[in-house]
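Subject: for your reference before the review

Hello V.,

The reviewers asked for a structural picture of the protein, and I figured it would be easier to keep everything in one thread rather than splitting it across files. Below is the amino acid sequence we used in the manuscript, unchanged from the supplementary table.
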Amino acid sequence: MASQEFQGQTNTIFKDYLPGSSDLSGQNKPVEPTSLWKQTSHPHNLPPGLEYLNQLDQIIIHQQVELLEAIVGTETSSKYEIKNHLGQRVYFAVEENDCFDRNLCSPIRSFTIRIADNMGQEVITVNRPLRCNSCLFPCFLQELEIQSPPGTIAGYVVQNWDPFLPKFTIQNESKEDVLKIIGPYATCGCFEDVDFEVKTLNEMSTIGKISKYWSGFVNNVFTNTANFGIQVPVDLDVRIKAVMIGACFLIDLMFFENSLDGL
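And here is what came back from the structure prediction:
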């Protein structure tokens, strides 16, 4: 009985949040089921450490400046602060790999990114194997595995072959397709933000986006640091929100790793 009341409250609160979620009577616009990506678990049953994500619809990811990388151009392990819309840090992320991978395989390098809360407890693990990202090798494109808590699969990010646009599929822990991410034809973003749209599976509705923020000429030329924003429905499943954070890291390395990107 209590769970039914909670579900009723949730539907009332978020009824008009999504584009296309209001009453469509009299319209012929197709509507996809949202059961695969909407939050269905009671807050007490969420993965430990992800409870805070349950109330967020905007996530800011700020890459920390590495002095050595800025001065001599040597690629160092990436470190990120993950913040809420007020700029308050909620998580901290550190990339793990070796110097050989970072400097020789840079944009396609394998890595493990460990994300910890402000108490230092690891809550999300992002694993990326060494794979291709070229449309010339459609059978071995990028795939990311996200765990939360570490050791438990939360979902996957899978690159889709397309000759023109960057495309990815967000999958849940059962490898069921949940959402699509579609980027622009050109990701250089001359003096402006670059948006990767988060869409429903039929690609008819846009429900969010991952944005690479323009951070200024000096910062983009002399460092690889990047600022990203993730905007998603507040009632998106927290596991899928964790997968979206992993997708943001993948997009950063695939399209914005080189220091001149963003000009």
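For the response letter, the relevant points are probably these. The chain is about 20% helix and 30% strand. Residues 53 and 238 are 6 Å apart (CA to CA).

Happy to draft the paragraph if you're swamped.

O.
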